[in-house]
Amino acid sequence: MSNNKPDDALSEAAIYSVDAYISEDYARAERDKLWRKVWLQAGRVEDLEQVGSYITYEILDDSVLIVRTAPDTLKAYHNVCPHRGRRLVDVPEGERNGSGYMRKLVCGYHGWQFDLDGKNNHIPFREDWGDSLTEACTSLKPVNMDTWSGFIFINLDPNCQPLKDYLEPAASMLEPFQLQNMRCRWRKWGVFDCNWKVAMQAFNETYHVQTTHPEFNQYGSFRGWARAQGELHSNIGYDTPKNMDGNQAAKLRVGEAADPRISTAEMQVYTWEKANTNTTETLVNAAKRLKDELPEGTPATAVLQHWLKSARADDAARGVHWPEVDPKIVGESGTAWQLFPNFQIGHAVNNMLTYQARPHGYDPDKCVFEAAVYELYPEGEEPKPAWKFCPPTEEDWCYVLSQDFGNMAAVQQGMKSAGFHGPKPNPYMERTTAIMHKNLAKFMGEGAPIKLNGDNKPE
Ligand code: FES
Ligand SMILES: [Fe+2]
């Protein structure tokens, strides 16, 4: 399949209703129809270091407690006491989620106790119930949980399909990148003034780059594709520039300006300093050396190959080994995957950037937005950054992300205008957004995109 060929039913121009973004009824319906039916990314395996380590995952009215119950076993439970329904583990005020270590679980209300496997092992004055209390009614209720690529996923639907099946083809196509070996460099979250879909869609296409991030235009113009992947997911990437045959070029956007040695270095330095994502210090330093290591006139493909080879060697020398990934897979996997409904992974062989957004209560105008960057570290040197609460400012998130945030609240408000009929995403570069609505409609029973036909208005 060529990068340039539309490969799904949404290759035609489409339009869809704004209800999914601004309707409170829709936001309420999402709880049962969407959030309680899908696999949700809830944390990283390395967050649960020892037996007894736990984290919580919060999604609207549900809180899930994830615990390491044995050196190689994680389990998830509804975070609620079966006695009278108190949350078992509280999320401390101002924190993203609960986390810590426990030998056993004790409810703070009347003192019911549970072992790490969720089984009740103490009830004060148990005899008062006679023989009415069974193990089933006094144990914690399990939640489906599985891991993939170092991420913990939960699913509130007791009858859900297996995680790996749900994630295909992303699960297989991203497997060679060995994302489970990466560790977090920073992770931030905030409460933003837009629907969770507006936040996710600020990052699921490349069409906005030329206008929202004009600084990147000086490094070359790169047209981006977007494709449906499997039943629910999608991915995006860059078309390979005409004079460049390496698949990796499309992925890494090596500068295609007059002197690719210089533009590659400039783009790397800009990305490192102004976005703080999608690259590593090793890649930046290797790019800075290109003008000394290669003669003037070296073609872009050769510049790219030299740059990656020397960065790979630099990392290997400090004990950081990038996986070898078939160039065909690198090309087809693109730059980022949108895992339905609310998780995006921007993957590479030595780093990744993830975005996630969840509703913030039932206010359709608000969401919890999160981003994290990961890379490969020498063993024993991995940082363990906590989730940092950050308002959507340049100071807190760096310049490039603040450019993206600058659109979010304005889109949320603009979509409420009496003069706006519905989004009309670019059928090639922004198809991911239409794909998301097509898939949302499978769960919600409404809001599927329809063919754009002049100034038509979707129901
Ligand atoms: S609600 Fe937990 S012990 Fe009563
Ligand atoms: Fe952006």
UniProtKB/TrEMBL annotation:
Keywords: 2Fe-2S, Dioxygenase, Iron, Iron-sulfur, Metal-binding, Oxidoreductase. It holds the Pfam family Ring_hydroxyl_A. The keyword ATP-binding does not apply. SUPFAM superfamilies: Bet v1-like, ISP domain. Its cofactor is Fe cation. Residues 39-154 form the Rieske domain. GO terms for molecular function: 2 iron, 2 sulfur cluster binding; dioxygenase activity; iron ion binding. It comes from the Bacteria. The keyword Iron-sulfur applies. PANTHER family: CHOLINE MONOOXYGENASE, CHLOROPLASTIC (PTHR43756). This is Aromatic ring-hydroxylating dioxygenase subunit alpha. It comes from Halioxenophilus aromaticivorans.
